Amino acid sequence: MTVGRNGLTEPVLNELERALEHHELVKIKVNIADRDDRFAAIQALCEHTGAILIQRIGFVATVFRRNPEHPVIPLTPELPVS
Predict the structure, then answer these.
(1) Domain boundaries in the chain?
(2) Whole-structure pTM over 0.85, yes or no?
């Protein structure tokens, strides 16, 4: 998903909520030129959704929020049965 020049609008926040519920791990491109403003927008996205920032490289941030009812990503590896 992409955050454009209009910043953190209600449709952007709603779309991120839906993406996190369905996928848990989401890459977001933040098209804000100023580095500090870009980081502030990413922090605001995380605070609003309850997601955690996994990685940020340039204009792209990866965030994660566990879906407690229907987890998609296993957090612990399956151990082989012997």
Answers:
(1) 2-64
(2) no
What is the total residue count of the chain?
Answer: 82
Low-confidence ranges of the chain (pLDDT < 70): 78-82
DSSP-assigned letters across all residues of the chain? -EE-TT-S-HHHHHHHHHHHHHHSEEEEEE--SSHHHHHHHHHHHHHHHT-EEEEEETTEEEEE---SSS--S-SSPPPPP-
| Nearest-5° Cα angle at 26, 22 to 27 | 155
Give the tokens for residue 31: 């098209």
Class of domain 2-64: alpha beta
